[in-house]
Structures are given as C-alpha cells and as structure tokens.
UniProtKB/TrEMBL annotation:
Matches recorded under NCBIfam families: CU044_5270_fam (NF038083)
InterPro entries: CU044_5270-like
Highest taxon listed in the record's lineage: Bacteria
Lineage: Bacteria, Bacillati, Actinomycetota, Actinomycetes, Kitasatosporales
Species whose genome carries this gene: Streptomyces himastatinicus ATCC 53653
Name used for this protein in its record: LigA protein
C-alpha cells in the first residue's frame, strides 16, 4: 500500500488545478474548525472577566495549532487550556468540568511496517459494510455523539500540575452544506448549547466530502494541497495530512464510497505505523493506526475494533519526552481521548435520533 520509493513524496506532487477547491479554503478538518467559534467566544468572555491566566497551551486536538488567535487575545488565551475555561462560570451559564489526575495509559507495541497492511484490512472492511452509507437530503443534519476528555497543565499560584477533564458527552449537529449546526458539550457550552455556523464549518460538510475524489492517489493529493495551505509551520506536512484524515473520520460522516479511499490514502503517508493495543475514551480495546509527531513527541492513534475493524475513536498520547524541557506532560500521558458513540442523519437541527424514530 505504500508508495513506491521511485515515486515522488506526496508532499512533492505538483498542485493539480482540477482538484483545487477555489471556493473552499477552510481548514481540511472538521472538529477543530467547529471549536474556533467557541474558542473566540471564550476569549471574549475571559477578556471581560479578567480571569487568572495559565500557561498558553493547545494540547487538545479540537484546538489545533492551525487556529489563529488575535494578537490582543493571545495573552489571555492561556485561560482556555485544552478547550476548558479555567475560571468559574464563564458568563453564559457554562461551568468548567471538574479535573482529576492525569490520564495515563500503557503504550502499545509498534509495528513500523504494519500500518499500511492494517489500513488495507480496514479499507476492505469499510467497503463491505454499509455500502449505502448516509444519504443526506436538503434540510437534514448529520448527528455525531461522542465521549471526550483532555489532559493539560493547570497553574494555580505559580504551581503547575497536570490534570484531566472528566469524561463527558459531546453532541454535534451539522447541516449537509455546513452552513448551520449546533454543539452541546458539558463544560464547553451551556445546557442549551451553541451555534456552529459560518464558512469555517463547511470544510467537513457532507456536500463537500461528496465532491472529493475516491481515487486514493487523487484524494491524497487534495489532502496535501489543503494541508500545505492551512498547516501551522511547526507541524510537519505529513503529520498535518494524517491529522486531517483523522478529523474526517471522527466529527464528520463521510459518504460510504469515500471512507475506503481515506484509509487507502492514509496508508501512503510516510511514517504510518500499527499499534497492537489502544483504548478509546470508553475503555474499548482495539488496534490502532498511528503516526508520531517528532516535533512534540506525541502519537496520534486511530482506534479500530480488533474483530470488526470498525472505527471506535482516537486519542493523542505522549510517547516521548517533549523537546520543551519545561513541559510537564510525561510519556504515557493521554493528552486527548474520544470515542464515537453514535452517528445518524436527522431531519432538523438539535433533533435526536430517538426523537426522529419516535416521530
């Protein structure tokens, strides 16, 4: 499944005009784009309340480094760590989740050559499953429910400790064109939730995903093109492409014909490995496809059921010591974890699948 050594590196492929999406220059991933609006709302609230400032960090994959903060807000961005406001009630009825000891895990054994083979099996399983996939009509919404938690450094009175959120629910609704949506997440929004509207949300919209090529080589060229246009300079291009695909596997609902192509495209990214054991946020064990980010010593893992090879969720694990000597995050720490619990197509924004079935 790997590209032949005689072929150019994917990042060196020439830009293909036919694949360039001139109308959509948003982020290539879904979940961190969803959080941009919420992040900025929190920053505005923190500016008004002058909350105590913790070290500025963005460990949570929802807050990828591709998010750009206004210069005036950067000094207060530390009040939002891993997507959680460290002050009290943030002014809109939300209350930060309680924190406890850092999440830790046993690091699975890596098979350096097993990533492409595992992705080939996953691709075959995806292609023989629900071949019809989601059918989204005008006016309908994609619904995705998950369990998530983050680990981050928290500073109080000049003392820094590593703490983790409680595992909590996250619910996202997104219209088929990405122009309308809703988010409900404990500790992040009020009980009623918040809107997810605007052009940045359309990068993972069903309508856009339906236009992506299903040929793995063409798809990977498109992914690298978007990654080059949007990535942070500190993030290696191969890692940016791997993360972009992972984002599409989590908080979006790709058409069935696209899913096998995503796995086959990921198999061509250099540095992709297999991990023999990994657990998602709900402690389901599985095998993982992963890639190490040498810039920070973290490994991004996509977790699949060992038997069915169904996608369960993902996590980010600190595998090697951070190059930053002052970084309190130690190897074996789970920086972020998620588990997909339900995906569905519903008829309206904020509608639950059970409500639709009852109707």
């Amino acid at each position: 499944m790997n590209a032949s050594p005689s072929q150019p590196h994917p990042a060196e492929w020439p830009e293909t005009q036919a694949l360039r999406d001139t109308a959509e220059r948003g982020l290539p991933a879904g979940r961190h784009a969803f959080h941009r609006e919420h992040l900025m709302a929190q920053i505005r609230d923190d500016i008004r309340t002058a909350a105590p400032v913790a070290p500025a960090r963005q460990r949570n994959p929802f807050l990828r480094k591709t998010i750009l903060l206004p210069a005036a807000a950067c000094a207060l961005a530390g009040a939002i760590v891993g997507g959680v406001a460290l002050s009290g009630d943030d002014g809109d009825g939300t209350t930060p989740l309680a924190t406890g000891p850092a999440l830790t895990t046993r690091l699975g054994t890596v098979d350096a050559k097993g990533g492409p083979q595992l992705l080939d099996r996953v691709s075959l399983a995806a292609g023989t499953g629900d071949t019809d996939g989601p059918v989204v009509r005008d006016g309908q919404f994609l619904y995705i429910a998950s369990k998530v938690a983050s680990t981050y450094p928290k500073t109080v009175d000049d003392k820094t400790t590593v703490v983790s959120q409680e595992l909590h629910d996250r619910q996202v609704w997104q219209s088929q064109d990405g122009k309308d949506g809703w988010l409900i997440e404990a500790g992040e929004t009020s009980d009623e939730g918040m809107t997810l509207a605007g052009p940045h949300a359309s990068s993972a919209a069903y309508d856009r995903l339906a236009t992506l090529p299903t040929d793995p080589d063409a798809l990977l060229r498109k992914i690298y093109e978007d990654a080059r246009a949007n990535k942070d300079k500190e993030v290696p291009i191969d890692q940016a492409a791997f993360v972009a695909i992972g984002d599409l596997l989590t908080e979006s609902y790709p058409p069935a014909k696209l899913v096998p192509a995503l796995y086959k495209a990921a198999a061509k990214i250099p540095g992709v490995v297999a991990v023999d054991d990994a657990t998602d946020a709900t402690d389901r064990h599985g095998v993982a496809v992963a890639r190490m980010d040498d810039q920070n010593g973290q490994r991004e893992e996509w977790i699949f059921d060992k038997k069915s090879l169904k996608f369960l969720g993902e996590r980010t694990v600190q595998v090697e010591p951070s190059p930053d000597k002052n970084d309190p995050i130690k190897p074996g720490t789970v920086v972020f974890t998620s588990a997909i619990t339900q995906r569905a197509v519903v008829d309206g924004n904020k509608q639950l699948p059970a409500e639709q079935q009852a109707g």
